[in-house]
Amino acid sequence: FPVDRIRNFCIVAHIDHGKSTLADRLLEMTGAIAKTEKNKQVLDKLQVERERGITVKAQTASLFYHHKGQQYLLNLIDTPGHVDFSYEVSRSLSACQGVLLIVDANQGIQAQTVANFYLAFEAQLAIIPVINKIDLKNADPDRVESQIEKVLDIPKEECIRISAKLGMNVEKVLQAVVERIPPPTGSIDEPFKALVFDSNFDHYRGVVANIAVVGGRVNKGDKIVSAHLGKTYEVNELGLLRPDEHPTQKLFAGQVGYMVAGMKDVKEAQIGDTLHLQNQPVEALPGFKPAKAMVFAGMYPVDQSEYPALRSAMERLTLNDSSVTVQKDSSLALGAGWRLGFLGLLHMEVFNQRLEQEYNASVIITAPTVPYKAVLSSARLIKEHGSEEITIVNPAHFPDRSVVAEYLEPMVLGTILAPDAYTGKIMSLCLNRRAVQKNMVYIDDQRVMMKYLFPLNEIVVDFYDLLKSLSSGYASFDYENAGYQAADLIKMDILLNGQPVEELTTIIHRYFMRWLKRLIGRLLLIEYYIQVSLNKAAAIKPYRKNVLAKCYGGDITRKMKLLKKQAEGKKKMRRVGNVDVPKDAFISVLKRK
Ligand code: GTP
After folding, report:
1. How far is the CA of 16 from the centre of ligand 1 (A)?
2. Measured by CB atoms within 10 angstroms of the end CB, which terminus of the chain is less buried, N or C?
3. Pocket test residue of 21, 85, 138 for ligand 1, highest count of atoms within 8 A of CB
4. 25 touches 167 (CB < 8 A)
């Protein structure tokens, strides 16, 4: 396929603005899938995506499209909308020259619209603004166009108004892709060079890599080298994703497709790696910035005998999700495990769910924490660590104040978009979370965009849920890294039946103490003692609950039912010390509502 008739583009948008629906329409119109009711969100392949109705993984599809008597090859990448998966978006953008930026005609610009716009803008991609859902009764495309012009500085005239659901004007989107997005720059006469931008593990074939061919061509049977490890492989299988695998003999410059080359170990197909032909070395492509983990948690097998199986499941899943960082860890109560770093709490939940659903693994996740830092004052410790500043991703290892000059906590710059009727409530929520307002502008006569500097720890667990509920679902939120700031931090130990439980240890800000009484409330199901220790100064009275207390009268069947229910509930528990702790306790301990 001549390179000048190839277009590589992503669809980006705020969550639920209709990316996957538009992708379905584009696939139908170009004949890649049949037009039936069953083919809904075909690119959301994972069980977790279908259950949660969100896109988690970017997916690729190659489409053939006729325009003015010529056939074009359009490579579409559908990307996730949620902030926790923005790493998927930035990786996908590196395989593209343009984006369709979808905005809901009723909701208008939202926090992730702005964030995704800047990702594409910084990557210098062509941006086609598409206003979707114009069929809705309260759609207001005029207003949305003005917002796009005001906030993103894109002329109104460039917007395309569509209804992805009804297929209205979708043809115009395809035309714009051809006319407004430039073709890739590589040529088939160069030496073969490809970027691995995603990969999967297949039980039968080993690693299946998604590649963007930047230059030259590759044939089935060629010997290729991965620049990262310098290992040579033979290409067994090549093809396009339409969106199902469609084997071909060759892939050319500008094309996006998949490759199977007998890589059996997940470490062999690193995302961001460059592939080239044997004896034809090329300069490695820039690859990707490593993802910056924002939330850390311990992960342990429910049963230690499952450790090896869980390790291999995790290796395979982290191949497909390279934004997770993995470090070995161990704990007295839970045995050998790992300390994992995630981009956010939803990311952590999705990872956990994928382990359970795709790999049949059952895991315990400990309370998540953000990465704190400490500036050490003890000369001995500085020597031991080789530096004055250390990062703490496990609260159990939080150094004592006596050896620390200063604690630091990670900060983020948050963007909130909401109707101005909610401004007051939002401001007090932010104040409550130790946030400092940086900016506030009206994006039209009713909606405001606010910027706040937050301690990451204050928003990571339940901030978004609270924001949504106090704004009746109208506020949206996104954030980016903003370095570290000094903070007055305390390590909080939790004692069960008098024994400290390392896995429940958390780092809190001094002001947080007053929440504690309420916080401990509903943690335990049965009659055990729970005690909180803050330098032993503020122990809280033990809390107890009897499951049978609800059974007034002598209804024995109801009692049995409850006891049975409790027994089932216990399966989800893990014995810590001499107490069964519900699997969720580790996270619940951090929620404040
Ligand atoms: P994520 O992948 O979770 O980020 O969502 P998405 O952007 O892919 O949105 P999706 O395509 O799943 O659409 C979200 C909802 O909007 C679904 O219920 C769609 O049926 C609906 N929707 C999408 N396009 C249109 C449209 O043109 N008109 C109307 N009325 N509804 C639409």
Report:
1. 5
2. C
3. 21
4. yes
- Cα 239 to the chain's mean position, in Å? 28
* Tokens, residue 30: 């170009």
* DSSP code, position 386: T
Distances 7 to 232, 240, 243, 433 between C-alpha atoms, Å: 30, 14, 16, 45
What averages of pLDDT result for each successive group of 10 residues across the chain (593 residues)? 89 88 88 60 60 61 89 84 68 86 94 87 93 96 95 94 95 96 90 86 84 91 88 92 86 90 76 86 73 85 85 82 83 84 84 84 84 91 89 88 92 93 94 93 90 92 85 85 91 71 78 59 41 45 40 44 46 47 53 46
Q: What is the pLDDT of residue 358?
A: 82
Q: Ligand 1: which of 14, 16, 116 to mutate, judged by most atoms within 8 Å of the beta carbon?
A: 16
pLDDT in tens, 20-44: 889 889 988 887 666 655 556 555 6
In this prediction the ipTM stands at: 0.97
Locate 38 and state its tokens.
Answer: 């069953």
Three-class SS state of 567: helix
The residue whose CA is least distant from atom 28 of ligand 1 is 133
Total-model pTM? 0.74
Separation of CA 45 and ligand 1 centre (Å): 16
**Contact present, 328 and 275 (Cβ < 8 Å):** no
Task: For Cα atoms 41, 46, 50, give the angle at the middle one, nearest 5 degrees.
Answer: 50
CB 260 within 8 A of CB 206: yes
Cβ–Cβ under 8 Å, residues 456 and 420: no
- Which residues of 393-446 form beta strands (DSSP E)? 404-419, 436-442
Count of C-beta atoms within a 10 Å radius of residue 243:
20
Name 230's Cβ contacts closer than 8 Å, sequence gap at least 6: none
Q: Residues forming the annotated binding site?
A: 13-20, 78-82, 132-135
Q: Tens digits of per-residue pLDDT, 347-402?
A: 888 888 888 888 888 788 887 889 999 999 988 888 888 889 999 988 888 898 88
β-pairing verdict for 499-500 and 447-455: unpaired
Q: Which residues contact 488 (CB under 8 A, 6 or more apart)?
A: 407, 509, 510
Residue 135: CB partners within 8 Å, gap ≥ 6?
163, 165, 166, 168
The predicted structure's pLDDT at residue 570: 41
